[in-house]
Design goal:
This protein is mostly helical and about 110 residues long. About 80% of the residues lie in helices and about 0% in strands. It contains 4 helices and no strands. α1 packs antiparallel against α2 and α3 packs antiparallel against α4. It is flat. It starts with a helix and ends with a helix.
């Protein structure tokens, strides 16, 4: 579906943004991956509103977030010499744990 294509493009563009060697490329790629993400969201919501399936199935977001939490926790162990990165990971872990809690409330 075009939604999945746009989401894949967004991931590709974001990776290229992170690897960009020139500031101008960094900025333009940031704009491009934002555009791809916004477009995918807009098209998906319009298709859902029109009752048109767009080829994706619902998955368990809690399980996906918990997998990421395990990876972030493991990554912390390899970054002992970089306290600023450990602090960032701790912050992300806390935020994702909060999202899991809120998702489980429903």
């Amino acid at each position: 579906s075009c939604v999945l294509t746009l989401l894949n493009l967004r991931t590709f563009l974001h990776l290229q943004h992170l690897l960009a060697q020139k500031h101008s490329q960094h900025v333009v790629l940031n704009e491009a991956y934002d555009l791809a993400e916004d477009a995918a969201d807009r098209i998906a919501e319009q298709m859902m509103g029109a009752g048109i399936p767009f080829g994706l199935s619902q998955q368990d977001p809690i399980a996906a977030i918990e997998e990421v939490l395990a990876e972030l926790t493991a990554a912390k162990e390899t970054l002992d010499y970089y306290p600023e990165l450990v602090n960032t990971l701790d912050d992300l872990i806390g935020q994702f744990r909060q999202k899991v809690y809120l998702l489980k409330m429903e």
